[in-house]
């Protein structure tokens, strides 16, 4: 099931996405929330009548850096021996169609296409073999990065945590297990030109191990998001660019870059 979060007539709801072609998509409004037992209402609204929102509002976004060997090398970094985690605040999250605001304190903004894992229930110290039990589904993400700030400041709070730096969407795909999610193609285009092309099977630390690793240290809550790293090919974004992250079996996340103001 594809679960989207949307607004219509000033109200916010979750809905199950139905249909295939862009002109055929409708939302069957969910009674309740997707993190508990829910029913489909049978009330359906066309996509043309709604605004898609970030598919979840996470308490925290935990991102893993340098989890693809070629990406680490293209930036001149060593491949980490253990998973390397950092945080993006909830205020960084936007949805598909929302604008990425070019931060005033940076001159070098980069895209980073990533597979995002959405946690479905409260959990801690999750065994690797139980990871499927705590995952709601998967979505696309763009770990937008002020690369010059990242290099200059060494730690990454401002470089990766500024407002609008974490586009998520377009929805959450719940019909993938960890095995399937570990065999997907990730692509990033800027103004229709391919920049990144990789596969989740190229991760240094696989999805199950990432969740086991971070849940050893902290409790994960429903709606929390885990970013799993980006393949090689990261590159610059300019004001006016349209950047799209497409993940096989999930969908396409599209955002335009605007001047912050």
UniProtKB/TrEMBL annotation:
Alphabetical keyword list: Hydrolase, Metal-binding
Example GO molecular function: hydrolase activity
Chain ranges of the Fumarylacetoacetase-like C-terminal domain: 60-258
One family name in Pfam for this protein: Rv2993c-like_N
The organism's place on the tree of life at top rank: Bacteria
Keyword field contains Acetylation: no
InterPro entries (UniProt xref): Fumarylacetoacetase-like_C (IPR011234), Fumarylacetoacetase_C_sf (IPR036663), Rv2993c-like_N (IPR018833)
Organism whose genome encodes this protein: Streptomyces beihaiensis
Name this polypeptide is given: Fumarylacetoacetate hydrolase family protein
Rv2993c-like N-terminal domain residues: 1-55
Coiled-coil zones: none
